[in-house]
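FAQ: What does the model actually see?

It sees only this:
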Amino acid sequence: MTTQRTGLVTLAGNPITLLGQPLEVGSQMPSFTVRRDLGPDTVYNEQTDAGKLRIINVVPSLETSVCSLQTARFNQEAAKLGDKALVITVSMDLPPAQERWCQANSVANLITASDYYEHSFGLATGLRIQETGLLARCVIILDGQGTVRYVQLVPEIGQEPDYDEAMAAVQQALN
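And it is asked to produce this:
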């Protein structure tokens, strides 16, 4: 049975239900598979880029204003970090839509990945929204060994995360 959690996140002020096991700081990132494009061999999972600090920017859909702002901001942060960290944006958008969004917004410093096919990321991280099938807004930081170092679950889907707090956690994880 899938774990259901309520009272943590709202959508336009209305409570929503999150499905899956919540992430805990200090635990290993659970197994997941997301797709970078439509090919069967183009997956991204918890083992990809092992050894590197990873910032996982989780958004419901790149086609919405807040998700667009958030991903553009993490693209800027990724440029500042250079090869010190990798930024991955995970959404429920199909890979072609993610690619179009990146091209239209000149985003080239991060990777986009889709949880549309397997839904494994949302369930593995406790971020799948029961009512919409989308992902809750969140920032996750993994160290090079795949240990969860930081989780910021944004309490209102329509709000941006606290970027300063997230980037302070990145700097702490890099030291």
